[in-house]
Design brief:
Strand order of the largest sheet: 32-33-37-34-38-48
Distance between the termini: 49 Å
Shape: elongated
Length: about 1000
């Protein structure tokens, strides 16, 4: 058991400090700028660039001539972006040597980290802003081939470029794909195919909803950001090589391309059809070269010359109506040749002295050029020469309040006043190669080759760094709400930087607003709550459980609860957390007589188990690939917070139709010790519940929402058989003369059920409700749905042979077997022996001893209409009868030197529970689920079948008891949020962020529209 974090510094009512969490990867060192090992990989991706397209020596400017010798080094440095992930790396996830999450100590003041006298900047950049609580990693999304749905072996797929729309984050990859991630849920929406080489640049036309992608194949593809279909393809000029950068002018609707052959090219988006297709075809035909393959189709000729861009499927390259995309050409008159003396790595459109269409271009020659964009004409307006101490290659640009930031190969960032054209400062980072830049709230973020992001304040003071995964940060982009997106390695990461430089930690910022309609505050609260190791049933963890209870109480008060308190009637048990939100229209009745909604859940969790099996720390929230990981995130802290924030939203908006009370217990994983006594002692606090709402079960599969309406009950039993001799004896000396408790126990257990699992307790099946024709029909429909829509769910995969595909589930035999499995799990009673043991350590390990005692534990699952007390009595009587029979047989075989005694403990644990899904309450819950998931789905046919009505084989003692306690009006609704693969109680417990958010919305609609029957 892990030690409890010291929490002595927290006072009552104070939220625990948010401790940022992040993970790094052990990887090989980043290759140096001059490494020649990259040449082979680079040539594969940029093989359209030829020496003949370089400017001749006669045409070189004087300023370019003295730099020419260093261009190759700069080129190799930047083109690490294309090849860096092709190096074989053994990426071992490791948790940074971390602090106890409750003991985060402020460093260098209250937030803004300014170097002290004598402190160098390297020391400041050793300070991780995640550990100081100013930055939090929201998600890390893998772009390896398997994670993108490719079944072949995992292959690296580095993120080279990033762009944002209102709904999506677009990530251009080294393999030419574009990964489309939904911003709200961090889930992969689609992978766009088209480029045959790395997707090096992205730009967005937000006015028309178009994404532009530039690739190593010399093409720009335009994508509709709503339908995610390719609209058209733009072919760059002759021998342009890779398109390294893009910029889009919203004012003039012109796309600017920065190319590998040192040129800058313009494409008139608005008037792209002013040149007819016939003329475009002629131009493409005229570009035939030594790569000509003999085709008579000019389009095919040009396609062959530019490289193979065949998409993975026709649908990926089709336009909105399914037609093949149009092709356009950039003509010679819109190309500025030799705009630089090196590769044009970065383009930036900005405002200078009220001129909002100034183009900045940066290249490997160490220069930054300024251009005025007038329609399709590019006029040079000046140049800035970077210093860089011999490593002047400029990788990235950013503009903020009249200051231009230039990221250099050396890792430095030069700051220029663009109006006076003066270099006013050079910022030294802790990394080489400032590959990417982003600015938010005047803070500057610099992504480097060592995988870290160095951060500077608005007054150009170093604040610290953000730890990354060890791979170069090749792209940065920032959302308006303060989420920084970084791309590099095989992943895209999302960082909450809203309060960087403000002197406010994320945990403290949660107190600034009472209600937040977005997800950020709920995730911050979950991050803090997960950090409490609230394991019930372990005396050493009782103090931690109470801290977790106080956290929820304080949070409910901050969100607007009119009453929040801890209640308990048993000193040895963890307290219940009670919180109440009053109806928006004040009821006339006193609380004890008011109709209410009763929300039940629990804050206690199971132990983490073997921490080595976890991919991240079990008591620190971690986001990966659209999931949140941590002990209790699915069972049950995540769903409880979703309910709390949903109710708080309604209360703040004045839309709460009736009073809602929360009862969150701390002993659910320990048999709900003290729940009944405590609630009975405080009965008047809960009103007259009409709806009991909980989320303590899981979907049947992975993609289809469910509604649980039944659970089996359970009986727990333990039995021990011991000898009167009270000591182990040697089998060679005493064998045959003494009784053997372990043999007797084995015979007894064998008489409880036969080899097929049929329970042998007399009368066990007498009261089991027969399966109706309606149940059989419902099960057939359910199984058919699973076979068609959920073939990869764990339940369905268990039926597949290793060499067969999910299509075999469509067979009648497979569906019949699946139906039988579900019936056995949900509908019929079972008896399970959990373990057997002997009395001493010596007897376990010494094969020559006869143990003096043996024990076993077992459980029985009961179903409607079995009586839990009746089955418990029958089980007890049967065990005692079998034991007496075994003893009689042993005595008849001959005298022994000892006697055997049976110690038996049989306890009913939970009654079975079965609701009627046709009641108005369940119909309202189903309608709320359909409404939320229909809004999230493009297919109305799909949502017409949801939710799936399911039962559970497990037991929750509180559910049937609460219905009985609040009878006759209360109806319990179990609304699962977790998927079947959530691993509750196991290592790597998780919950889908999308499910958590949708669960919050479902509860919002259910309570808002709730009608008292």
């Amino acid at each position: 058991m892990e030690s409890v974090c010291d929490d002595s510094r927290k006072t009552a009512g104070e939220l625990p400090r948010l401790n940022g969490f992040y993970y790094t990867q052990d990887a090989g060192p980043v290759l140096s700028a001059s490494s020649s090992n990259l040449v082979g990989g680079i040539s594969d991706m940029c093989d359209h660039y030829h020496p003949t397209s370089l400017p001749s020596s006669a045409s070189e400017s004087p300023s370019a001539a003295h730099r020419h010798s260093g261009i190759n080094t700069s080129i190799h440095s930047k083109l690490q972006q294309f090849h860096i992930e092709q190096q074989t790396q053994s990426d071992t996830l490791r948790r940074t040597s971390s602090q106890c999450s409750m003991n985060t100590t402020p460093v260098l003041g209250a937030g803004t980290l300014t170097p002290q006298p004598g402190q160098n900047q390297a020391g400041v950049f050793g300070l991780d802003l995640c550990q100081t609580g100013q930055v939090r990693c929201l998600q890390t999304l893998s772009q390896k081939q398997k994670q993108l749905g490719n079944e072949k072996e995992e292959e690296s797929n580095s993120a080279l470029s990033l762009a944002l729309s209102d709904d999506y984050v677009f990530s251009g990859t080294q393999r030419g794909h574009i990964c489309v991630w939904r911003r709200e849920t961090f889930r992969l929406e689609r992978v766009l195919y088209g480029h045959s080489a790395g997707c090096l640049a992205l730009a967005v036309d937000s006015d028309h909803g178009v994404l532009f992608s530039g690739g190593g194949d010399g093409r720009v593809r335009a994508w509709d950001m709503q339908t995610l279909r390719c609209l058209y393809v733009v072919h760059a000029g002759v021998n342009s090589g890779a398109i390294l950068s893009l910029a889009y002018s919203h004012k003039q609707q012109v796309l600017v391309l920065g190319c590998q052959n040192t040129s800058i090219q313009l494409f008139d988006v608005q008037n792209r059809d002013s040149v007819g297709r016939e003329q475009r075809v002629k131009e493409m035909a005229a570009r035939r070269s030594r790569f000509f393959d003999g085709s008579t189709d000019p389009i095919a000729v040009c396609a062959s010359y530019m490289g193979d861009s065949r998409p993975a499927s026709p649908a990926d390259s089709a336009g909105p109506g399914g037609e093949v995309e149009e092709n356009y050409v950039i003509f010679e008159q819109t190309i500025t040749h030799y705009a630089h003396s090196g590769y044009v790595y970065s383009l930036l459109l900005g405002n200078v002295a009220n001129d909002d269409d100034v183009l900045f271009s940066a290249a490997s020659d160490g220069s930054i050029r300024m251009w005025q964009l007038h329609g399709m004409e590019l006029r040079e307006a000046g140049a800035l020469e970077c210093d860089g101490d011999g490593d002047a290659c400029v990788h990235s640009l950013a503009l903020d309040d009249g200051q231009l930031f230039a990221g250099l190969q050396s890792g430095d960032v030069e700051v220029w006043d663009v109006e006076t054209r003066q270099r006013i400062r050079t910022l030294s980072t802790s990394t080489a190669n400032a590959f990417s830049l982003a600015i938010h709230a005047h803070c500057v973020y610099v992504g480097g080759a060592d995988g870290s992001i160095c951060v500077w304040s608005g007054d150009l003071q170093p604040l610290g760094r953000i730890g990354s995964n060890g791979d170069a940060v090749l792209a940065l982009v920032v959302e308006n709400d303060g989420v920084l997106v970084s791309g590099g390695g095989n992943a895209v990461s999302f960082w909450d930087v809203a309060h960087v430089g403000s002197g406010v930690r994320l945990a403290e910022s949660t107190q600034q607003k009472r209600v937040d309609n977005g997800q950020r505050r709920m995730l911050q609260a979950l991050d803090q709550w997960i950090q409490f190791r609230s394991v019930s049933g372990v005396p050493e963890m009782q103090a931690e459980c109470r801290r977790a209870a106080r956290f929820f109480k304080d949070l409910a008060q901050q969100l607007g609860a009119v009453d929040a308190r801890l209640i308990s009637s048993m000193p040895e048990s963890n307290p219940l957390v009670y919180a109440r939100f009053d109806a928006s229209s004040k009821p006339a009745q006193p609380l004890a007589e008011q109709p209410t909604v009763f929300v039940y859940g629990h804050y206690d969790v199971m132990p983490a188990g073997d921490v080595a099996l976890w991919q991240s720390h079990p008591f620190e929230l971690s986001g990966r690939d659209g999931y949140l990981y941590g002990r209790g995130v699915s069972d049950d802290k995540g769903p409880v917070l979703a309910a709390l924030f949903a109710v708080a939203d309604l209360a703040a908006a004045g839309q709460l139709p009736l009073t809602v009370v929360f009862c969150i217990e701390g002993e659910e994983e320990h048999g709900s010790v003290g729940l009944r006594e405590t609630m009975d002692a405080h009965r008047a606090l809960f009103g007259v519940p009409r709806l009991i709402l909980l989320s303590l079960s899981y979907w049947l599969g992975e993609t289809t929402p469910c509604l649980t309406y039944g659970m089996r009950g359970s009986i727990r039993a333990s039995l021990q058989i011991e000898s009167s001799r009270n000591a182990d004896v040697h089998a060679g000396v005493w064998g045959g003369a003494v009784n053997e408790p372990l043999a007797c126990l084995s015979h007894l257990l064998a008489r409880l059920a036969d080899s097929s699992g049929h329970v042998l307790v007399p009368g066990f099946y007498d009261d089991v409700r027969s399966v109706s024709d309606q149940e059989k029909a419902d099960m057939r429909r359910l199984v058919h749905w699973v076979a068609q829509k959920e073939p990869r769910a764990p339940l369905a995969r268990a039926l597949l042979s290793p060499t067969h595909s999910p299509s075999e589930l469509s067979s009648a035999d497979s569906q019949s077997e699946l139906s039988s499995q579900l019936m056995q799990r949900w509908r019929f009673p079972t008896l399970t022996v959990h373990h057997m043991d002997v009395s001493t350590v010596a007897a376990r390990s010494n094969a020559t001893l006869v143990p003096a005692a043996a024990q076993a534990s077992l459980s029985v699952r009961v179903v409607p209409d079995q009586s839990i007390d009746g089955i418990a009595a029958s089980l007890r009587a049967h065990i005692e009868s079998v034991f007496a029979e075994i003893q009689t047989q042993r005595r008849q075989a001959g005298p022994t030197l000892d006697e055997l005694r049976l110690h038996l403990d049989v306890k009913p644990h939970a009654h079975w529970w079965l609701a009627d899904p046709e009641t108005p309450v369940y119909q309202a819950a189903a309608q709320a689920i359909r409404k939320v998931w229909a809004d999230a789905s493009d297919s109305k046919e799909e949502t017409a079948h949801i939710p799936l009505l399911i039962r559970e084989g497990g037991s929750i003692p509180a559910v049937p008891w609460l219905e009985s306690f609040f009878a006759p009006h209360a109806v319990a609704v179990n609304l699962p949020m977790g998927q079947s693969s959530d691993n509750a109680h196991l290592d790597n417990e998780r919950i889908s962020l999308e499910n958590l958010m949708r669960g919050r919305q479902i509860i919002h609609h259910l309570i808002q529209d709730f009608k008292i029957q």
